[in-house]
């Protein structure tokens, strides 16, 4: 089952393309049009990411954000809104949001924000349960540790590892790794990815990490082994 996304948006011309785009990415998407509907859904269902519009018909989205956090929701919250003022941004984050996207926005940018939030959420969710010598990724600080020892990675090595860790034990296609670690407009040789993977493997092995980056011929790469953390 893919990651679960709750879309809270009352404007159909915005919600429908957004839902279709996320479903094509492999997410399990549920859509509601009101704040109360969102809170009721979260009370009985899990969601990894909430995409929250502030201008809802029954209540302010900031109240939805606050009440969701007070009720114990620990997943990521991405606010989307037409309120572009700096004060609104600060207030939204103070209410418990993780990120903020101003309308109008491109679907590609929103997808990138969701992927980044998922990487951060997955890493945080597993961190507390990891043994002392496990591979640990700190997305906010962009640092990687083997137990208490830091594994020094380049920016691209970190991005590749983060994407693989977010999809642990699943194959990530080469094209997706290139798109997320570099960008969708990269036209260079895919050997760049192979070189990066090679360096990443060497550094993880040297640090004593039991997790391995495994190549799946003709498809992509998979992070496996270790204790299942990230």
UniProtKB/TrEMBL annotation:
Modified residues (4-aspartylphosphate): 53
SMART domains for this protein: REC, Trans_reg_C
Alphabetically ordered keywords of this record: DNA-binding, Phosphoprotein, Two-component regulatory system
A cellular component term, taken from the record's GO annotations: protein-DNA complex
InterPro entries linked: CheY-like_superfamily, OmpR/PhoB-type_DNA-bd, Sig_transdc_resp-reg_receiver, WalR-like, WH-like_DNA-bd_sf
DNA-binding span(s): 125-225
Xref: SUPFAM superfamilies: CheY-like (SSF52172)
Domain OmpR/PhoB-type, chain residue ranges per copy: 125-225
Gene Ontology BP annotations: regulation of DNA-templated transcription
Any one GO molecular-function label of the UniProt entry: phosphorelay response regulator activity
Domain of life: Bacteria
UniProt protein name: DNA-binding response regulator, OmpR family, contains REC and winged-helix (WHTH) domain
Species annotation: Nocardioides terrae
């Amino acid at each position: 089952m893919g990651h679960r996304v709750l879309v809270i948006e009352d404007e159909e011309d915005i919600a429908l393309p957004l839902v279709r785009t996320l479903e094509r990415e492999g997410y399990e998407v549920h859509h509601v049009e009101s704040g109360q509907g969102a809170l009721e859904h979260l009370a009985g269902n899990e969601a990894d990411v909430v995409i929250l519009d502030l201008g809802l018909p029954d209540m302010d989205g900031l109240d939805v954000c606050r009440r969701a956090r007070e009720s114990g929701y620990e997943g990521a919250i991405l606010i989307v809104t037409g309120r572009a003022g700096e004060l609104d941004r600060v207030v939204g984050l103070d209410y418990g949001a993780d990120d903020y996207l101003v309308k109008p926005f491109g679907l590609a940018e929103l997808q990138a924000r969701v992927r980044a939030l998922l990487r951060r959420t997955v890493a945080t969710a597993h961190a507390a349960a990891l043994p002392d010598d496990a591979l640990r990724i700190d997305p906010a600080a962009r640092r990687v540790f083997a137990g208490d020892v830091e594994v020094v990675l380049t920016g691209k090595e970190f991005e590749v590892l983060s994407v693989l860790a977010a999809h642990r034990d699943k194959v990530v296609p080469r094209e997706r790794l290139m798109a997320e670690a570099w960008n969708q407009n990269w036209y260079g040789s895919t050997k760049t990815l192979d070189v990066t993977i090679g360096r990443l493997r060497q550094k993880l092995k040297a640090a004593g990490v039991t997790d391995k980056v495994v190549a799946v011929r003709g498809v992509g790469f998979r992070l496996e082994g270790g204790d299942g953390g990230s």
